Prior knowledge:
The protein has about 800 residues and is α+β, with helices and mostly antiparallel strands. It contains 24 helices and 29 strands.
Amino acid sequence: MTTAVQRAPRITSDGAVRIAAKLYGLRVSAEPLPSERDQNFLLRLITSREESPSSLTPSPCLHPEGEEKKSGYGPEPSSADGQFVLKIANAEEAFEFLELQNQLIRFLAASKIELEFARIVPTKTAADIAKIKDENGSEHFVRLLTWLDGVCLAEVKPHGRRLLASLGRSLAQMDAALAEFDHPAAHRFFYWDLRNANIARELTGLLPHSRRKLVERFFGEWEKIDWSSLRFSVIHNDANDYNVLVDESERRVNTVLDYGDVVYSATVCNLAVALAYLMLDKPDPIGAAGQVVAAYHETYPLTGREIDVVYALAVTRLCCSVCYAAKQTRCAPDNEYLNISNAPAWALLDRLSDIAGDWPTRVFRYACGLPVVSQKYARQRRASADLIEERKRHTGPSLSISYQSPLHIVSGSRQYLYDSAGRRYLDCVNNVAHVGHSHPYVVRAASEQMAMLNTNTRYVHENLIEYAERLTATLPEPLSVVYLVCSGSEANELALRLARGHTGRNDAIVVEGAYHGNTSAMIDLSPYKFDGPGGRGCPSWVHKVPMPDAYRGAHRGAGAGKFYAADVAEAVRQGDDVAAFFCESALACGGQIILPPEYLREAFAAVRAVGGVCVADEVQTGFGRAGEHFWMFETQDVVPDIVTLGKPIGNGHPLGAVITTPEIAASFANGMEYFNTFGGNPVSCATGLAVLNVIRDEELQLNALEVGEYLKAGVRELQDRHALIGDVRGAGLFLGIELVRDRETLEPADSEATHVVERMKERGILLSTDGPLHNVIKIKPPLVFSRVNADLLIASLDSLLKKTRQY
Ligand code: PMP
């Protein structure tokens, strides 16, 4: 290792200019670029193909058999903006290895990868590789590559979701392509090959005493790796943050440079090396790495064993880096390149040493949608058939169960659920597991707080305050007072009390088909229930208005909002005791209906004109699902008086919230205490905070927007081909597909919808139906839902609809 660095070429910029002229006929200026073992120069073209005198003695390189190596390209060099990289190899570099690099670049350029690759510029005599002698008489191979534009990943800040995903995808595409590539020179012994980390390990004696133990501990983890269980292939092996070029405006990776570390090794090492550098200087290194792993896995799936070792390998790379740097600074104290990543690497190693042993692997398993907790920790399972029988015996018959043949789900991760047989299902309907099933950050936040304290709100606790601050910060003024409860039903129940307390009135206006909860008052407030089987009809204090359904309702098309709002105004006129108008910001049980423009604005105005209170039920629709907005009511350009929250708020933890104005809260404080044993406890608040953090850190609202739009466009294309699809609607990742037998009469295709849901389940995709006519397929998945998931859903729907006859 040291000799290679010592035998790095020593060519001056003038020398590089002369090489360009003599070998390539290019008149250029030259600027040195950093390199550890080789020398690279950025050449800028002045004019081309001019002879220039040289003190060097270049000669076209001969193929080992004595035959001149012919390039696949014509003799005229070209680079889009006249820039090239002149690569002068270390004197120890073998010709075959440079040949491997050239072949590999060409192989990748010819494969279907979203990245750009340099072109290899031949010499005047059409050789891809030439040889020069420097002034000391030592020989070096020379290559010229076209320059690729971009900014180093290291210089782009911050690394957002899109960029991290692009890095993961790029690496995965390269690795997938290189699975088909091989070259004898890649099968070499190389000290940066993570299999050979023992070479670095022997240098730990050179490290400062205080840090030696830390590095030795990490090498101990490396030692446990079972290399025989991993896949092998030729890998780039050095996607460090200076070798990854980014298109800053597009926030995507342009290319990965520098093939000097290519080696045949465990494929996962390529990802591990990239992660090692990506984690540098990050506020949450593991979270950022997790996002890269997720995108990698979706493009080129990792094996379970690879997922379980990638973190140990990434840390090993950092350890190798600090060990080699310790050695090299002894030999070449003035080589700046050696120290580039040294200080941040130490800082990162220090931070990682504080992280619990299995945490990174939990995050990475989650990133890959694998159950985070190994099945071996699960309780002894009972047969699924027995469970169904026992369930019937011990739970009320009104408790329903999905699917003709029920599922026995035992674990969840990300947007996936796993049944007791280990089969994976894509969850397209669970809007409770908002940031992903069993998200490790949420699980950790809840369990750490649970281990510390869980009690009621009669004590002061920072979690309650911090959560109230964070939650209200997402809402417009004057929505600044929070009541924490345990469910959406409780939230709406409290909202009704607040409205009654504030107005001194009793009645409520609700939308047909609406569902607001399971308590007695909420059943009374939910036409979905009181008008349905077992329901006792509309109570006298409740006034129903028609669903603002611009597809099937009395008023259709773009201008329908005002007409439906007039129904609310009419209800206000007829009732003289209206305290509140309850409306979901998009109608979920009503059939995934997006409110037509102007609806809430005009309806709210009518309600407020008589002193009524407007309640936005965001239980199904909130927390970024709408895509363009954090709250669905914002799509209607209104500010409600009360907002009720539930389902996604705790990612499955029983949590709900009511947020209102100081004025309404003051009216409610009439002397009667509001006490809720569980509402607002420190565990619930820690959980809610973690959910907000994940939505922000993983940019899930943006994902909802991008993937939601992509999915909606894809399903709309299906609508052109399948007459059964009457309407496709939605915002972000809140979508509905309404099935009809006749696009004129809109005869609901309810049994067809059930058929589609059942058959999709057989294909491993979970959907369900909704709407008063049971003919709307609803899509409201965890917000980590990806384009790949969307593609699968669209393709599966397409093939199924081809076979679905109408009843
Ligand atoms: N409001 C709406 C719009 C809902 O969809 C639901 C639940 N489906 C609720 C309120 C009640 O929430 P929970 O089941 O948490 O009590």
